[in-house]
Design goal:
The protein contains six helices and two strands, in the order E-E-H-H-H-H-H-H. With about 260 residues, it is mainly alpha-helical. The chain has a domain of about 180 residues: dinb family like domain (Four Helix Bundle (Hemerythrin (Met), subunit A)). Strand 1 and strand 2 form a beta hairpin. Helix 2 packs antiparallel against helix 4. The longest helix is centred in the last third of the chain and has 34 residues. This is DinB family protein.
């Protein structure tokens, strides 16, 4: 067991490392950043949590013995109307959720078009640019609808952009240097969104619990069987949350243009 006692590790970087079951006692983590970390089963006691930001797949999080996730979930639903509709339980609910997503994204794209085109390639606080966000959603549809549900082994387009945490998985493309125009990416988006709408049009309640047929060959998701409802639910979540992030970052970019013009 390696021990670090009374050592200054300020600015140290841990990447691709395992700290499972590690013990942190009297440790200064102020200003630390955790990206794509697995904190399942972590216990924190006697902590000083001031100005802390936490997001991700958060479940069963207790603060002073109270599960705060339902409280946060309710507040997010209040702040972002329609979010509660992204967890439908029947086919009609999925169709209604998709109708709402198409409407919301139409409004967001309208805002994006008001900005100088070069800003749509600009990252805000290290997050994906607007163009990259749209490319990722094309990837998500290719992965969870065209590959997992429809059984297309290699549904990828060269502009597909997987999540950063995913290991390179040929033949899935990952061209972070590409700079397509907004119209070019929207053409892809329209095609993929039409695919989803067409599938949902004939979706039945029984289909939601059916298992997909594993797709042969490498790719993402892995060649396994998934519940159709899980695949579609993944798409709804991706679409809604990334649209929320896009709205946040577009507002920041808009403020910059206003400030630059003053």
């Amino acid at each position: 067991m390696t021990e670090f006692k009374a050592q200054d590790l300020t600015g140290a970087r841990f990447e691709g490392s395992s700290l499972r079951n590690a013990v942190f006692e009297d440790v200064d983590l102020s200003g630390a950043r955790f990206d794509n970390v697995n904190l399942s089963g972590t216990t924190v006691r006697g902590a000083r949590l001031v100005d802390v930001s936490l997001d991700g797949d958060i479940r069963n999080l207790t603060v002073w013995g109270i599960d705060v996730v339902p409280l946060v979930d309710a507040e997010l639903n209040r702040r972002y109307p329609g979010r509660e509709r992204m967890r439908p339980t029947d086919a009609d609910g999925y169709r209604e959720a998709w109708d709402l997503l198409e409407q919301l994204w139409s409004e967001t794209v309208t805002k994006a078009r008001r900005l100088p085109p070069e800003l749509l390639h600009e990252s805000v606080d290290g997050e994906w640019s607007f163009i990259e966000t749209l490319r990722h959603l094309v990837f998500a549809t290719d992965a969870w609808v065209r590959r997992a549900v429809l059984g297309v082994p290699e549904p990828w387009h060269p502009l597909d952009l997987p999540h950063d945490e995913m290991h390179d998985t040929p033949p899935v493309p990952r061209d972070r240097a590409a700079r397509p125009s907004l119209d070019e990416v929207l053409e892809l988006r329209t095609d993929r969104m039409t695919t989803v709408r067409t599938f949902l049009a004939d979706l039945t309640d029984d289909q939601l619990t059916e298992q997909t047929t594993p797709v042969p060959g490498p790719g993402y998701p892995a060649s396994e069987s998934y519940a159709v409802g899980r695949c579609l639910g993944t798409i709804l979540g991706e679409e809604f949350e990334h649209r929320r992030y896009a709205e946040r970052d577009l507002a920041t970019l808009q403020a910059r243009t206003v400030g630059a013009g003053s």
